[in-house]
Specification:
- The chain is about 40% helix and about 20% strand.
- It is an alpha/beta fold.
- The chain has three domains: about 230 residues, Phosphoenolpyruvate-binding domains (TIM Barrel, Alpha-Beta Barrel), CATH 3.20.20.60; about 80 residues, M1 Pyruvate Kinase, Domain 3; about 120 residues, Pyruvate kinase, C-terminal domain (Pyruvate Kinase, Chain: A, domain 1, 3-Layer(aba) Sandwich), CATH 3.40.1380.
- Helix 5 runs parallel beside helix 7.
- The chain is elongated and about 80 Å long.
- The model has no long low-confidence stretch (mean pLDDT about 95).
Length: about 475
């Protein structure tokens, strides 16, 4: 079965209780999903394995590589338990956090994270329960922190704690994450998402453990990561704008500008970028999105994001397939707007100086050549995926047909803007590559007989990062 999307931006959908059967997962893919997300914050390993296996079955039946993103929980910080249930904190009252494991009261609670106390200073703020409550540190030492309640409310046990403006001396990978990572890699995840990245070194640590078996994706949700944004992007293979926690630790009004800045820098560095969180939130309960949500998705597309993501909408909502269908329609409608192409062309970023090489020159020339001859498709033969990534960075008008002998590379590229991946056998020489490219472009429905396509590849074949060939051929 041959199929391809008529749009460039991709859809990431989270699997969960509402989307665990083969019937639903296949319907989600047919409705528009390009890559499935497994959220390791929830569920048992057996659940994830079953969903992995179903996705691979659907992939085989549909004849198109499907990517899988394993999202690690990261160092989620939480308060301890209370003796008599939730407590009501009032503005102006004193409240203490400490390492004492005794059940909490109206005056104090256990905070089982010594690394927080090691990093706190007087004047620092703690945000509780996704920012609903706010306290300010008066005094602190290695075991306690006495605070004044600035914004009060009900505090229940095990609620999350955010420490904005403070770099905590902790790894982005907890012991749970390391176990989850082993499972995800064993199952064959194509991307590994790291939560609560604070610094580029977090990505270096993860990369050393992953050893090239999957792409490393940085979730940007900490102010410290935004402060070193370019370095974090450079150290990653892809990025997610995780607007949930980012909007907790930073003023909500600053998130739209940060989102645009992240997308712009990712395009500059040629790194795929996902915009996530609350995109079609109302569709957890409603069969249709709000107009504001439709506008939110469209804004990410106009900015040039590689992908947009559904979380609870597809994992636990009442209308998972409808949510994907609406997102597909919003993207398709946005990309059909003449203003979309104008904005994409106007925001075409200058290449980062580190990428000024032969491969980048070929891809820049490809964009111009494809426009000049009105190419129906751009065909990239790639061993590592780099040629297709560089081609996508140029945001050409023609679709990008990515051919690779490596199924893992083809799956990983399912995240990338404008790329349609096809798993093929290696061609023997450049002449056979041109024939193969024309045949695949025709059979996959990207080009008609007698029409031009632009081909880019690297010689000799099989060498990563050797893109040095561009050819225009007639199908």
């Amino acid at each position: 079965m041959k199929m391809h999307r008529s749009r460039k931006a991709k859809i990431v959908a989270t699997l969960g209780p509402a989307s665990s059967t083969k019937e639903v997962i296949k319907d989600l893919f047919t409705a528009g999903v390009d890559i499935f997300r497994m959220n390791f914050s929830h569920g048992e390993y057996a659940d994830h394995k079953a969903r992995f296996n179903i996705v691979r079955e659907v992939e085989k039946e549909m004849g198109r590589p499907i990517g899988i993103l394993a999202d690690l929980q990261g160092p989620k910080l939480r308060v301890g338990k209370f003796a008599d249930g939730p407590v009501m904190l009032k503005v102006g009252q004193k409240f203490q956090f400490d390492l004492d494991t005794t059940l909490g009261t109206i005056d104090r609670v256990n905070l089982p994270h010594p690394e927080i106390f090691a990093a706190l200073v007087p004047g620092a703020e703690l945000l509780l329960d996704d920012g609903k409550l706010r306290v300010k540190v008066d005094t602190c030492d290695a075991q306690t922190a006495v605070t004044t309640v600035m914004v009060g409310g009900k505090l229940s046990e095990r609620k999350g704690v955010n420490v904005p403006g403070v770099i905590l001396p902790i790894s982005a990978l907890t012991e749970k994450d390391r176990r989850d990572l082993d499972v995800a890699l064993e199952l064959g995840a194509d991307w590994i998402a790291l939560s609560f990245v604070q610094r580029p070194e977090d990505l270096v640590e993860a990369r050393a453990l992953i050893k090239g078996r999957a792409g490393v994706l940085a979730k940007l949700e900490k102010p410290s990561a935004i402060e070193r944004l370019e370095a974090v992007i450079e150290a990653s293979d892809a990025v997610m704008v995780a607007r949930g926690d980012l909007g907790v630790e930073m003023p909500a009004e600053s998130v739209p500008a940060i989102q645009k800045r992240i997308i712009r820098l990712c395009r500059k560095w040629g790194k795929p970028v996902i915009v996530a969180t609350q995109m079609l939130e109302s569709m957890i309960e409603s069969p249709v999105p709000t107009r504001a949500e439709a506008s939110d998705v469209a804004t990410a597309i106009y900015d040039g994001a590689d992908a947009v993501m559904l979380s609870a909408e597809s994992a636990a909502g009442k209308f998972p397939i409808e949510a994907v269908s609406f997102m597909n329609r919003i993207i398709t409608g946005t990309e059909a707007d003449p203003l979309y192409r104008q904005l994409i062309d106007a925001s075409h970023a200058q290449t980062e100086s580190a990428q000024h090489d032969v491969a980048q020159a070929i891809c820049s020339a490809m964009r111009s050549a494809a426009a000049s001859v009105h190419a129906e498709a751009i065909v990239c033969y790639t061993s590592s995926g780099n040629s297709s990534l560089r081609a996508a960075r140029e945001r050409p008008d023609a679709p990008i047909l990515s051919l690779s002998h490596d199924l893992g590379v083809s799956r990983k590229l399912s995240l990338v803007w404008g790329v349609h991946s096809v798993h093929i056998n290696d061609p023997d020489d450049a002449s056979k590559l041109a024939t193969m490219a024309a045949e695949v472009a025709l059979s996959e429905g990207f080009a008609k007989k007698g029409k031009p396509i632009v081909i880019i590849a690297g010689l000799p074949f099989g060498e990563s990062g050797s893109t040095n060939l561009m050819r225009i051929t007639i199908v």
